Amino acid sequence: MKKDLFLNKQGVTIHDVAAYAGVSSMTVSRVVNNSDRVSDKMRKRIEDVIKELNYIPNLAARAARSGVQRIGIIFTNPDSSNLGGFLMGALASASSLGCELLIEPLVAHPSPMDALQALIDKGVHGVILPPPICDSLDVHQLARKNSVMVLSFASASPKLYSPAVLIDDFSGACAMTHYLIQLGHEKIAFIRGNESHSPAKGRYEGFVVAMNESNIKINDDWVLEGDFSYKRGMQLGKELLDKPKNERPTAIFACNDDMATAIIAVAHGLGLKVPEDISIAGFDDTAIASAVWPQLTTIHQPIKDMAARAVKLLDELIKSDGKEQKVNHFIAPFELKERGSTAPLQK
């Protein structure tokens, strides 16, 4: 059978592959679905035909026929301390609900749009997106165009027309700043997060408001641009602490735990005592916050519970086709965890 007969068609189907290979459509389906009921020789033959005809399995149609809800997740930072807790919560929730999770790392794609398109091509019914992806209008438009629901996760600027699970980053940072002030600290440095992430903006605004409410002037030289990474925390920690005592802050509030714990390591390396010489606070309460010495004072974000809630909320919306439930923005409670890395100012 001539190859041109298939290549001139609008789209090659599984039946075309079967006809060209001289086998049944069921045999091709078994190869596509990685069934072990096909011999290695037959598998190789069919795979060669699939490649030759450029056949792309219709995964979206297959997902629709299965009746199982497919939820996609894109994660942006594989090194984040948050990732383990997030995946544990999401997987546990998906298991109890009977839905399927498809996890896509952003680093495997040229852009967020490509990562989302990959999940759409795999037949997802909804996606859970972190910032800054979930804050992009283009991303929401691509999803809506393909009838895929978007849930914004941990965004400080959730869309009014899209469900979201988050915490109040502003209030959490405000609470931590007031806590440091109550300990007697006024010379407080702040390490910002990645400026493209809306939570970083909300946390910085909380710091600024709390300082202003206490009539404490912010030292602009002590507000530094971080990126949420441990490496950047090391760099900025050295910049702030490798100075004479009268030129450095007495407390440092970092926008996340990775940067805060890096600063603790820098302090140790410089021979400074934590918290006697410098108080250090973070945000998120990831596993690393309890693994360092002294343990980190931080804002607890219940990431595992939030991930479970996100999967459950999106699953419910998909099953109702988005019609039976209003758009829900679930705001999880935060908690200030006072640990050994902070103490009253020693004069």
Automatic annotation (TrEMBL):
Signal peptide: none annotated. One of its GO terms (molecular function) is DNA binding. Coiled coil: none annotated. Keywords: DNA-binding, Transcription, Transcription regulation. It holds the Pfam family Peripla_BP_3. Residues 12-66 form the HTH lacI-type domain. SUPFAM superfamilies: lambda repressor-like DNA-binding domains, Periplasmic binding protein-like I. This is LacI family DNA-binding transcriptional regulator.
